[in-house]
Amino acid sequence: MGQNETEIPEATYEMLMSATYRALCEHGYDDLTMRDIAAEFDKSRPLIHYHYESKEDLLGAVFEWMVDRYEAVMLEEVDQDGSPREMLEAFIDVALEGPADPEFDHWAFFTALLEFRSRAHRNERIRRAVVESYTYTIDLIREILETGIEAGEFREVDVDATAHFLFLATDAIRIRYIINDAETALLQGRTALDELVLASLYSD
Amino acid sequence: MGQNETEIPEATYEMLMSATYRALCEHGYDDLTMRDIAAEFDKSRPLIHYHYESKEDLLGAVFEWMVDRYEAVMLEEVDQDGSPREMLEAFIDVALEGPADPEFDHWAFFTALLEFRSRAHRNERIRRAVVESYTYTIDLIREILETGIEAGEFREVDVDATAHFLFLATDAIRIRYIINDAETALLQGRTALDELVLASLYSD
Which of A67, B10, B26, B102 is buried most, with the most CB atoms less than 10 Å from its CB? Predict the structure, then answer.
């Protein structure tokens, strides 16, 4: 955390995070410079340096901001008054296709997330935010599974292992979409989830 | 491809790839310098520059070398005279725990792979090698599935979707191992694969 990071006013913080995120999506992690970020930011460049010592500090902060934003979007899509199956399928829909919110560019978000994640094992701040984002989504799936098992809609599976697996499987399908085969990745991913995973999870 | 890359003698190539790989595992993609690579390489630094114009060229080459090496190791472990189920389980074993070969450091390999993969959408040479490594493994799983369905050991699933899914799911479990929760990632991953995926794939 940068020296003066905690003192940043809320409105400046939002503006800076959003500018950094746009610059990151455009240039990619490797090529992003403080100059690129400043070009997206309406205020002065020294103001960035006052709050964030380095590009790494600022990127750590923007990643936490991204994760917070995604959690809110995800919760809004999934936490509805449906049955456990409907909620699980809503989770799969939003995980694979993104939320309905047109402001949220699902693939830009996950492409940036992929770049952060590959640095998690070498950057403690990023690692913590990655783990937090995992935990949040997995907890959400876990609750859906528990409700569904209690209601008799799902078989009695290992809830923790299944929640992790559903999260990881949808994540892996997204990674395939980003790297290759955009067209078929989502279609085949859904087919396999339906034929294999949901078929053995649903109790009838 | 570097200007003189194709002229590199085989022994020098092996030595340079192996030195670059060791340096990459130690320093990570972001921090790796040509100096770090030269420090692992017995021959002169100008020799590296003669064959590879930039660090990016050399890293592209080392990634292709890594992928070739992994394919050989994978094939040796899986292509045995077992039944389709035994071959599929051998694939899952080697994907999650690595090959028996003590020379091959499974987790160092996949940590490096993770760093390459996050650059695939911005680097065409890396993207091609990523896709090749996917394709190789998926073809191997596809053959096992086809044999198993023909032999009546597996249900009649969508072979292509299932092969991709099995590859992606094991890969996702490995990523979880690298980023977090080393202990439980493999255990829970196996539980979910057994309870959900294999349970609905096996025909009895």
Answer: A67
Name, in order, each residue with C-beta under 8 angstroms of A5's C-beta and a sequence gap of 6 or more: A51, A52, A57, A61
Select from B162, B169, B178 the Cβ nearest to the Cβ of A169: B169
Res. A183 pLDDT band, cuts 50 70 90? confident
Residue A139 pLDDT > 90:
yes
Reported as type and span, the H/E element at residue B80 is none
Phi then psi for residue A60, to 5 deg, are -60, -45
End-to-end CA, chain B: 51
Residue B135 lies in a domain: yes
Task: Please give the torsion angle defined by the CA atoms of residues A14, A20, A25 and A28, in that order, rounded to the nearest 10 degrees.
Answer: -150
pLDDT in tens, A64-75: 999 998 888 888
Task: Give yes or no for B176 touching A (CB within 8 A).
Answer: yes
Count how many domains chain A has: 1
Residue B200, chain A, CB below 8 Å: the answer is yes
ipTM (interface predicted TM): 0.77
Predicted TM-score (pTM) of this structure: 0.83
Q: Among A63, A88, A96, A118, pick the best mutation site for testing chain B contact (most B Cβ within 10 A).
A: A118
Residue B164 maps to a domain = yes
Contact list, B134 vs chain A (CB under 8 Å): 176, 179-180
Higher pLDDT: A14 or B2? It is: A14
pLDDT tens for each residue of B98-142: 888 888 899 999 989 888 988 887 888 888 888 888 888 999 999
Residue of B195, B198, B201, B204 to mutate when probing chain A, most A C-beta within 10 A: B195
Domain of residue B162, CATH code: 1.10.357.10
Q: Is residue B196 part of a domain?
A: yes
End-to-end CA distance of chain A: 51
Tell me what pLDDT residue B109 has: 92
Query: pLDDT at position A3, please?
Result: 58
Q: Count the residues in chain A.
A: 204
Structural domain including A118 reads 61-201
Across the interface, of B115, B191, B201, the residue whose CB is closest to A118 is: B115
- Is residue A53 within 8 A of residue A6, CB to CB? The reply is no
